[in-house]
Specification:
Blueprint lengths: L1 H29 L15 H11 L10 H18 L17 H22 L3 H32 L4 H7 L10 H14 L24 H26 L18
Helix pairs in contact: 1-8, 2-8, 3-4, 3-8, 4-5, 5-7, 7-8
């Protein structure tokens, strides 16, 4: 179980790092600029250089901040993000544990991450961080209500909150054909949830103050930075599980469960 946990964390971290590089490449293409092109072949190892810089950078704790909670909040947020992937979203066997109420479990973890964001701004003792933390937390919690109502309707149709039930229900007919217009609204809400353009309300690229992470740097800033991309990747997987046939398309790769604990 310990080995599987370590492998899972490494695989997810590498996927998230690749997503960060892909997003930067796409943004540079849209904005007609070069983008990352120095480290590795055409900049493909840029995420390794960024990670090395962040992990070797020192951490300064503000004099008025609570040192314990200042360090604990990003650590808790990082733990919440990794806990997402211990659920059975990979497949029936490729998970550390399986719970009957997978959708509820994911929603609770998402709400907990929003609380971490709010408390992060509060314990920084910076008025800009406090305002940004409240703004981000209120936005995330309000969106969770909408997502909860939407997924509740879908779960009533499937008569279960389990990812396995969604896989069985969609063996013949995908739910995307029933909830196409609803999915378009969900995608807009997900953009709001993960603070992606044009809904980057909690933190805009044009602002000098980086929201609730204003006082953070180095390793602790990297945890929040990865947390946003964890949400982005997890919500993408969640949409695939709920609307696009679950893990039925991954059946050729399910032989890997023989090599897991």
């Amino acid at each position: 179980m310990l080995i599987y946990s370590i492998v899972l964390m490494l695989v997810v971290t590498l996927i998230i790092a690749s997503i960060t590089l892909l997003e930067r490449k796409l943004l540079s293409l849209v904005q007609r600029r070069v983008g990352p092109n120095f480290v590795g072949y055409k900049g493909r190892l840029q995420y390794l250089a960024d990670a090395l810089k962040l992990f070797l950078k020192g951490v300064a704790i503000p004099s008025g901040a609570n040192s314990f909670f200042f360090v604990a909040m990003p650590s808790l947020a990082g733990a919440v993000c990794y806990t997402f992937w211990m659920n059975s979203i990979w497949g029936p066997s490729l998970s550390m544990f399986d719970v009957e109420y997978n959708i509820v479990y994911a929603s609770l973890l998402s709400i907990l991450f929003g609380l971490c964001v709010m408390l992060t701004g509060y314990f920084s003792k910076n008025k800009y961080s406090v305002m940004a933390g409240l703004r981000a937390a209120i936005l995330m919690l309000n969106l969770e209500i909408f997502l909860g109502i939407v997924f509740l309707n879908v779960c009533f149709l499937v008569e279960s909150f389990s990812f396995a039930a969604f896989a069985v229900y969609q063996e013949i007919f995908w739910l995307i054909f029933l909830f196409f217009f609803l999915l378009s609204n969900i995608l807009l809400v997900f953009l709001l949830e993960v603070n992606r353009t044009p809904f980057d309300l909690a933190e805009a690229e044009s602002e000098l103050v980086t929201g609730y992470t204003t006082e953070y740097g180095g390793f602790y800033f990297a945890l929040f930075y990865l947390g946003e991309y964890f949400h982005l990747f997890f919500f993408s997987c969640l949409i695939s599980v709920v609307f696009f046939g679950s893990w039925e398309l991954l059946k050729p790769f399910l032989f890997l469960h023989n090599y897991t604990v």
